[in-house]
Amino acid sequence: MGGRLAPPLSELISPYYTASNKGTTGLWRNFFENPTTVQFDHRVLAMTTYVATALLFLSSRRGAMRTALPPSARLTAAAAFAMANVQAALGISTLLYLVPVPLAAAHQAGSVALLTATIHVLLSLRRPGAAARAWRQANLARRGAGATTVAGKGHKVNV
Question: Number of structural domains, the chain?
Answer without folding.
Answer: 1
